[in-house]
Write a structure and sequence with these properties.
- The structure holds 2 protein chains of 2 kinds.
- By secondary structure, chain A is an alpha+beta fold.
- Chain A has 24 helices and 21 strands.
- In chain A, strands 2, 3, 4, 5 and 10 form a 5-stranded mixed β-sheet that branches. Chain A has a 5-stranded antiparallel β-sheet with strand order 12-11-21-20-19, with helices on both faces. In chain A, strands 1-8-9 form a 3-stranded antiparallel β-sheet.
- In chain A, strand 14 and strand 15 form a beta hairpin.
- In chain A, helix 13 packs antiparallel against helix 21 and helix 15 crosses helix 18.
- Chain B is mainly alpha-helical.
- Helix content of chain B is 68%, strand content 3%.
- Chain B has 14 helices and 3 strands.
- Chain B has a 3-stranded antiparallel β-sheet with strand order 1-2-3.
- The chains are: A alpha+beta, B mainly alpha.
- At the A-B interface, helix 1 and helix 2 of A face helix 7, helix 10, helix 12 and helix 13 of B.
């Protein structure tokens, strides 16, 4: 062996001992690392490990359906997919792939992420990246599940509204909760990104319609592949809500309003149930689902026809002659005239030094109240207005439900306006000039009503002074929804039956005796009604302008049958020129109501084994008002 | 010298400890590879252990003096082999480390070069006088070993090349280190560090930055550090239980049966298991050092300390990486990580130590 083994003992005791100590020290140093992680704060890492492997996926609850009074579906849901993004897992390198696969422009995706970054909130909370995925997008996500663990495909039921916008204003629409709504008490429990009802019934009964989302805990591996489900809390679907609307009546009302701008309300005056409610022009509520695009929103808000306006409760227009029955009631009830009161109409009359014209230049001759209603004689009602004075007129108008919200269960109802001397002082710091009353007496001047007020006031009057609050949710449904709910008491005012019969007789004449509303006549049904043609601007101004928006508004309010009416319909046909043109709209709706009723009666009788009898074909027939006529003579 | 070798002279503590560690390794490999494409890895590991025991026996049997004497020849062959790897090696994950030779596929040559370098360094320093080594002497051996270091570094495999430096460093340390030189060397390192940083490859820089702040980019380069930390922490004091570590089983932990096997082990056995394993490794090291202290000559002492330095480097860097005290680097944990080359080279190194032990009373 060579020289290096010659030495007996070649030791480096110091150096090897140094190594031992250094090794021992460094091992202890490593151990402190494990101590820190495993003994001092294992919870942190246990929690992070749990977050790694357990993914909580929301199981989205579908919103409740909206049904008509017979349980037919008005608004449903359709199964859609949306994609959620886990921000804490986002790999920036995947962005171009995500952008391409989901058809999101890269810049927009980037901007969205920048926005989100500024939001507070835990990073692991998932955000919605895109909703209503198309089938190719769903396929893309399926195929790239392993590469894009930050994305999660979610089943999310979406709202489906009728495409043509039928009923759009009543049911409203849903959309993502806004910043300002988040701060309202009503939405205290909602988080940003939640879908809420934004308008109409969707908004009014949002709580009931909104379900409770469930959740699914899924064990995933590092490639986000599901290993197994750990826990499932089923989603509780929102409650389906049945409305008072009658799809048959509603459909006919929608058709009748097609091509016209305006609003229509059909009520059951015995209960206040809304049978149909239409506003035209319509909009497509589907565009709001999942966020409306900027261009769509601009198009809707800048449309001169204001399609988002629910005209049936928000259009405040001068009622014109449909106001006359209330004036008639006021004058009779206040005792300023009796039932035999007559006025001579010579095509106009002077009041307070100003000449007021009747709509018929040649005049109506001597007219009583019944004839005055039938022919809508202005001079007669000028006279009543003069006798009543503005404040009594206002008092009765308010009793009949004008100038205040009816309280229908829809958001953003308008009040209309009933002018009075107090109102004028408050607003203009000026006294009421008696001459102004004359215009108000024929439904012009500062007086405005909404279609629902028109139906409500006429219905209550025809019911003999009982005004039931209009509502879209049946009271039995309401009791289930809100335990302890008590239907509001109807408002009552004194209406002398004899006064009422005289007014009703006049309104019957309007339709059935060759009056202004003859187009509302339905053979076999006792339809009463009143036309209204309300000036938008002064007659002279309108004649010199060719703006179609300055044409008179056409109104018609009809009800049937004459006594204890089952249905009252008010139609506002904006710029329809003459009330007689609104009459057929109301006729169609009332006819639809009775057609259905007769069909059901017939079916029921058949089922009960009765021999079906053909309906007797009755012509227009004056109701038997013998007692009243006797009293009047 | 006598050829009588008693069974009693075998270092049973050393080999028993090593075997125990290897057993823990097999169990953890089994647990970490269940339901994965490598689910027969533990069987192969057992096979490697069998071969390793054979190699260990061979390396104990042949007199280490002869091995040390022939080390320049082995080293020449090693450098040649590293050249062959450099030219014809198989590339995996961007690194050319493996040689696809018929009988032993995927042979990682650089692992076996360690054994040679231990012998070479031992020969060089044991051949010197008792005087402290001169700078020129140190420069000479550094230059020689440097060839292998550079070749391995170019594969690129920084950690293995650094393990050679660890062997060399231990040799220099034992040969007699002048603290003045250490100070000078440290000064040079501090001065050149910024230059080194600039010349580092982007992935190396990423690893260092990821080491400094693993949370910064959790899906990117710091992913391994972070997942390892989570796995270790989630183990808690008592561990999740065998086959029950979620980080490991659901494969959030990368390289759970190779480089990060200690993280899987820590998750499933907890702090208690960690203490147990670290004690085993410490016993292993101390037994090796003990053998160095009882070595019959300078060569034996140098061989043992070279092995101790190498194994300590591996254990410290690997476990340090698992517990986020060292940057992530592809370095196996001796005796536990799955992989034939490392297991076989470790067996050979332990064989050498045993070799020295068997001959401690000779001469």
């Amino acid at each position: 062996m060579s020289g290096y083994s010659e030495e007996r003992r070649y030791t480096r005791d110091v150096e090897t001992a140094v190594f031992q100590y250094v090794a021992a020290f460094l091992f202890l140093w490593l151990l402190t690392g494990f101590w820190q992680l495993q003994v001092k704060e294992p919870e942190i890492y246990e929690e992070r490990a749990a977050r790694n492997r357990v993914r909580a996926l929301p199981v989205l609850a579908p919103r409740g359906k909206l049904l008509d009074r017979d349980g037919r579906v008005l608004v449903d849901n359709w199964p859609a997919f949306k994609v959620m993004l886990s921000r804490d897992e986002l790999n920036m390198d995947s962005l171009p792939l995500i952008a391409e696969g989901l058809n999101i422009p890269y810049e927009r995706l980037w901007e969205r992420l920048e926005e989100i970054r500024d939001e507070v909130g835990p990073e692991y909370r998932q955000i919605i990246l895109k909703e209503s995925l198309t089938p190719p997008e769903v396929a893309f996500l399926d195929a790239h599940r392993a590469e894009l663990p930050e994305l999660e495909l979610l089943r999310s039921p979406r709202r489906l509204y009728p495409r043509d916008g039928r009923g759009a204003h009543v049911v409203g629409y849903v959309g993502e909760i806004s910043e300002s709504e988040l701060e309202e008490d009503e939405f205290a429990l909602y988080e940003s990104g939640a879908e809420i009802g934004k308008a109409g019934i969707e908004r009014e009964y949002n709580d009931a319609l909104t379900g409770t989302d469930g959740s699914k805990l899924v064990l995933v591996d590092s490639r986000s592949r599901r290993v197994r489900d750990l826990d499932l809390v089923e989603a509780k679907p929102g409650r389906s809500v049945r409305l008072t609307l009658d799809l048959d009546v509603q459909s006919v009302a929608e058709l009748a309003m097609d091509g016209r701008r305006g609003g229509l309300v059909a009520l059951d005056p015995r209960s206040g149930e809304v049978l149909a409610m239409v506003s035209t022009p319509r909009f497509d509520p589907n565009r709001f689902v999942g966020g409306i695009s900027g261009s769509d929103w601009t198009a809707l808000t800048e449309d001169p026809d204001y399609p988002l306006l629910n005209r049936s409760i928000q259009a405040q227009r001068a009622p014109g002659s449909i106001f006359k029955p209330i004036v008639a009631w006021a004058a009779l009830d206040a005792g300023v005239i009796d039932r035999s009161f007559k006025v001579h109409c010579g095509g106009g009359a002077s009041f307070f030094g100003r000449f007021f014209r009747c709509h018929r230049a040649g005049g109506h001759g001597w007219v009583d109240l019944e004839q005055a209603l039938m022919h809508s004689c202005d001079v007669f009602f000028y006279t009543l207005g003069k006798e009543l004075g503005i404040d009594r007129l206002a008092e009765y108008s308010e009793k009949a439900g004008l100038g205040a919200r009816t309280g229908i269960d829809l958001p953003h109802e308008e009040e209309g306006l009933v002018p009075s001397s107090k109102w004028k002082v408050r607003l203009y710091r000026d006294r009421w000039w008696p001459g102004e009353t004359i215009s108000v007496a024929i439904g012009q001047g500062a007086l405005t009503v909404t279609p629902i007020q028109a139906a409500y006031s006429m219905g209550g009057l025809a019911m003999g002074g009982v005004w039931h609050q209009p509502h879209l949710l049946p009271y039995d449904e309401m009791r289930e929804l809100r335990p302890g709910f008590e239907p509001p008491e109807p408002k009552r005012s004194h209406v002398d039956p004899r006064d009422l019969e005289m007014i009703v007789r006049g309104l019957w004449d309007v339709v059935n005796a060759g009056g202004t509303g003859a187009r509302a006549m339905i053979p076999g049904e006792q339809v009463c009604g009143k036309t209204g043609s309300a000036q938008r601007v002064s007659r002279a101004y309108a004649q010199n302008s060719d703006d179609p928006r300055l044409l008179d508004d056409a109104w018609f309010v009809g009800f049937a049958p004459c006594e204890q009416p089952e249905i009252v319909v008010a139609a506002l046909y904006e710029n329809g020129e003459h009330g007689s043109l609104a009459a057929p709209i109301v006729r169609d709706v009332i006819k639809a109501y009775f057609d259905k009723k007769r069909r059901l009666d017939w079916t029921r009788r058949q089922q009960e084994g009765e021999r079906p009898r053909p309906e007797p074909q009755r012509g227009p027939e004056k109701p038997s008002l013998a007692a009243v006529e006797e009293a009047a003579r | 010298m006598s050829d009588e070798r008693s069974w009693r002279d075998i270092d049973w503590t050393l080999l028993g400890t090593a075997f125990l560690i290897a057993t823990l390794g097999v169990l953890e490999i089994y647990s970490a590879t269940r339901n994965t494409p490598w689910d027969n890895a533990h069987i192969r590991q057992i096979l490697w252990i069998g071969i390793g025991v054979g190699l260990l026996w061979v390396c104990s049997k042949i007199d280490y003096h002869w091995l040390v004497e022939q080390s320049p020849v082995f080293y020449s062959i090693s450098v040649g082999a590293l050249f062959v790897v450099f030219l014809f090696g198989t590339t995996v994950n961007g690194a050319k480390r493996w040689l696809d030779v018929p009988i032993v596929p995927n042979l990682q040559v650089s692992e076996f070069v360690k054994v040679v370098i231990v012998l070479l360094v031992a020969r060089y320093f044991a051949g010197m006088s008792r005087e402290r080594a001169t700078i020129s002497a140190i420069a000479k051996i550094s230059a020689t070993v440097g060839i292998a270091v550079v070749l391995v570094k170019m594969q690129p495999d920084l950690s293995t090349s650094l393990s050679y430096v660890a062997i060399l460093g231990m040799g220099v340390f034992l040969a007699g280190l002048r603290w003045k030189w250490v100070a000078v060397a440290l000064g040079i390192i501090l001065l050149t560090a910024p230059l080194a940083w600039r010349s580092m490859k982007p992935y190396q820089k990423d690893r260092v930055t990821a080491f400094l702040d693993p949370e910064k980019d959790p899906r990117g380069k710091g992913y391994q550090s972070l997942q390892s930390k989570i796995a270790v922490g989630a183990g808690g004091v008592w561990g999740k239980g065998f086959e029950r570590g979620t980080q490991t089983q659901l494969r959030f932990l990368p390289e759970a049966h190779t480089d990060f096997i200690f993280a899987s082990y820590a998750e499933e056995t907890g702090f208690m298991g960690v203490v147990f394993a670290l004690i085993l490794y410490f016993i292993l090291l101390m037994k090796i050092v003990n053998n160095a202290q009882t070595a019959p000559d300078a060569a034996g002492m140098h061989v043992c300390m070279g092995v101790a330095a190498l194994l300590f480097f591996h254990v410290f860097v690997n476990i340090g990486m698992v517990v986020n005290k060292m940057p992530v680097t592809g370095i196996p944990l001796p005796l536990m990580s799955y992989g034939g080359s490392n297991l076989l080279s470790t067996s050979m190194l332990l064989g050498l130590v045993n070799n020295v032990r068997l001959r401690r009373f000779t001469n």
